[in-house]
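User: For my dataset I need records formatted as: sequence, then structure tokens, nothing else. Please produce one.
Assistant:
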Amino acid sequence: MLVTALWTISPTTPYPGTAALLPVVGAGLVVLLGGSSGLTVLGRWAPVAALGRISYAVYLWHWPAVVLLPIVTGHPLGTRSKVAILVGSIALAALTTRFVEEPLRFSARVSALRPRRVALWGIASTLLVVALGASTLGALEVQQTQAAAYQRSLETGDVPCFGAAAGVGTADPCTDPRLADVRVPAPAAAGTDDANRPACWSNTTPDLAVCRLGPATGYTRHIAAIGDSHNNALISAYAAIARERNWRIDVAGHIGCYLTTAEQQAPSDAYTASCNGWKQAALAWVRDHPDLDALVVTHAATKSPVIVPAGSTNDATVVDGLVGAWRNATDAGVPVIAIRDNPVAGNDTLDCLGRMTGPTTDVCDSPRAAALAAFDGSAEAVARLGHRAALVDLTDRYCTATTCPAVVGGVVVHRDPTHLTATFARTLAPSLGSALADALRTLGR
């Protein structure tokens, strides 16, 4: 069970969850039954015994390093960073076990303490930890209750400035004093505020998964939205648009993969094969549906960069790849609507918001230039395709002239540095729906 857990639990596995049974039950069985097995011989081997002696201290030391190092450096952990954390954790664990933990454990003064006194100290410490945890959970519950209340208000239109409706970058921004100290979803829970659906998501397989939003028949428009995770982060908006406008929107997404003929950088050959196979299947699906009113495309400008061939540039490769893929649709009579990628946030934005109390300030915001620094290429590709393509740019719903706020209209914008929360995406529905309708009219659909 332990070995299986090493190979089956990946960064995309919901955890903790049922997957936790593998390492937990496996470790429990080792503790319960390992003493009469060949594991005893392995445990007597000096390196294993030494690591076992300091293992709990290794656990305590490695975790803050794993969490904090990406925040400090601004980059995800690479091989060198992981090796450094492993070596550093073992070194620190050996020192603290030898000079802190064991002297305390085996101290004569500690051993002489009366059991009743030890029990009282233990109870007091436990109550303190429980109280701190309860206060945190209580604050989270309050924030989540606020989120539910404002979500209901959003549905009825009682909070006109909620989320993207605030129009922070428009000529006439909307402000509601009731939202001054509202931050929903709660920053501690924002990371899981994702509306993606398995039926719309191919993850790491080349098979095309397409889900339908809106009516199966009797719809007034039929569009397809295809792209990477930034496309599927808009599913709550797509669903609202389909429902409110009586449109049918077919959605398909693949992790780190979007419609481009350019080769994308990938962690493995298998991943590249999966991505390329999915692109071919997606383009074939579009060609098989010439009844589409439009193909809507978007992609993460900061993820899965393209491989630049000799003699070209990154920007030219990005644009050429988009145009090459989109022509599969336009040549089949399906125009393209490209949505400019959303701005990005800082790596520590959610932690920053989690520490915030009272009215929301600009301390967690990102400079506009940094948030929109990555080259998207959509505008340039649309210009190349002329009357067969249109651009939707909702930047004024995210950013002012100088900053991209972490909270807009009381809603936390990002669930991680690059992906929108489902709550904020849902508030984009009126703006995105209107922009798509305008683009369809421009395209003569």
